[in-house]
Automatic annotation (TrEMBL):
This is Uncharacterized protein. Keywords: Membrane, Transmembrane, Transmembrane helix. The chain crosses the membrane at residues 26-48, 60-87, 108-134. It comes from the Bacteria. It comes from Tsuneonella deserti.
Length: 144
């Protein structure tokens, strides 16, 4: 009773590269950039709210929090790109076929990690830019 049904042997595994890529790498590629953005938004708000009312504004701490978020986002993007390259041989076709058909779960998760990392990377950079240009706390914005 160990023989598989002929139909089960005719179908390919939906994720042939599943064992070739550690789960922590997939999770890091998927979650590092969104987590960095979330921490950046919350920490920037807390630091600015607690310290900007005083004359000793937390300029250095605010900049450090945001630069750590930028570094974590680029780190997550690097892991996601490495995952995407590591799963290159999982299924035939490029990223457009991957979007249309969706075969190869590991490759799809790696591709989704790249897209999410780039999107959240843009959000982190916009947040960092807005802190420099709009923040009265840092002393760069005009105080009308």
């Amino acid at each position: 009773m160990t023989a598989l049904h002929p139909l089960a042997t005719a179908v390919e595994h939906p994720s042939p590269a599943k064992g070739g890529l550690p789960a922590w790498r997939l999770v890091a590629g998927l979650a590092l950039a969104p987590a960095a953005f979330s921490v950046q938004v919350v920490a920037s708000y807390v630091v600015a709210a607690l310290g900007c009312g005083d004359e000793g504004a937390p300029r250095v701490l605010l900049i450090i929090v945001n630069l750590i978020a930028v570094a974590a986002t680029f780190g997550g993007a690097g892991v996601a790109i490495a995952n995407f390259r590591a799963t290159r041989d999982e299924k035939e076709g490029g990223h457009s076929r991957l979007q249309e058909v969706g075969e190869g779960r590991t490759r799809f998760l790696a591709y989704f990690g790249v897209c999410a990392s780039l999107l959240f990377g843009l959000a982190v950079l916009v947040q960092l830019t807005s802190i420099f240009t709009l923040s009265q706390c840092l002393g760069f914005a005009s105080s009308n």
